[in-house]
Amino acid sequence: MTQATVTEDAPFTIASRIAAIEVSEILRIGQKAAAAKKAGRPVIVLGAGEPDFDTPDNVKAAAIAAIHGGQTKYTALDGTAELKAAIAAKFKRDNGLDYAPNEIITGAGAKQILHNAFLATLNEGDEVILAAPYWTSYVDIVGIAGGTPVTVKCNEENGFRLDAADLEAAITPKTRWLLLNSPSNPSGAAYSAAQLRPILDVLLRHPHVWLMCDDIYEHLLYDGAEFVTGAQLEPRLKNRTLTINGVSKAYAMTGWRLGYGAGPKSLIGAMAVVQSQSTSNPCSVSQAAAIEALNGPQEVLAERRAAFQRRRDIVVERLNAIDGITCRKPEGAFYTFASCAGIIGRKTPDGVTIDSDSAFCKYLLDTVDLAVVPGSCFDLAPYFRISYAASEADLIEACDRIARACKALT
User: What is the H or E stretch that residue 25 is in?
Assistant: First the structure.
C-alpha cells in the first residue's frame, strides 16, 4: 500500500483590495472601553454614532404589524413600491425634490448606498474628493471600490467647511465624485445655502465631477438653522447628484439598517445591479417600519432635536472652561470636535508626554475611564470627538473627568 503524501495547507493571503484596511480605531477604542467596563470600571463611552433614544413606538408597532401580516418574504431588490413612495414624499416635503420610483434605491443602511454607488461608478484610479475631517468609513469604501481618496483639509477657522478654492485646486481629470456630509460627522459642521453656493458653482464649472450628498443628519440642525442639500439648491446639478439619507439618526433606528438614495435613473439602476449581487432587498420588516417613520407623526424630530441642542450647549460650555481645550459650537449632528492643541506637550503624572490627540484620548480612558475618539481617526488632528448622544448626567460627569485629567497634567 502506498502512503499518501501529506502537504501543508497554503498560508492564508488577504485580497489586495483590503490588505491595507484595518478595523477602525473607533471600534478598537470601543472594545477596550467595553472590556474595562466589564472588569468593573465606571467607564463612560462617548464614541458611539447613534442616538441614545429608543425607536418611536408607532414605528415599532408598524414593524410588529408587518410581521403578523406576513411581510417577511423577499421584496423588490431595491425596495417596495410603498417605501419608495414614502421616500419620494419625504424628498418633496422636506427638500422640494421630485424623484420617480426608478430614481430611488433602498439598502441595508446608508453605508450600503455609499458602497453601491462607488462600486457602480469607480474604475481603478478614479478620484473621490473628501472634506476632512470626514467619517472614517468614507476613505476605505472608496479604496475597496478601486478609487483614490483625495483629502482636502477643512480648517476650524472656516467652521470645518470645505473652501471653494481648495475644492477647485483638488479637481483633476480623474475626479469622479465630491462627497459632502452636512451636518458632518465628526465636526457637526453644516452648510447654509450661502456657504454651499460657492461649492456648487465650482461643480458647475467641472461637468465631469458628480456630487454625493450624505444627508443622514439632516434633521439634527440647531439654533433655527435651515437644512439645504445640493440638488435642492442647484437644480442644474440634479442629474449628477446622488442624495443619500436614512432613518437611523433622526428616528433612532440604527439597528434596523435602512438607508436610501435618490439620483438619476442610470446611476440608480447601476447601483441596483451591485445590490442584486450582494444583499438583494433590505429587511422587509425594516422597510415597513421606515414607511411609518417617514409617513407618520414627525413631532418626535423637534423634541429630540431640542434635547440634543441642550446637550450640545452643556458640552461646549464645559469643554471651553478647561485650560488647554477649545471647542467651537457645531451647527448640527450630535458631536463636538474640540481642539486639544493646548494639551500637546504636557506630561502626565507618570511623566509620559501627551504628544498627539490619540495619546490624549488614551490618557482619558486609562486615567478617568472616559472613551472619546481622536481627531486623527477622521484625518484632522489634534482634536477629539465627543458624541453627546448620551444623558445630560453622563455628559456633565464626562466633562468633569476631562477637566480633572487635564488639571493633573504639567
Answer: helix 25-38
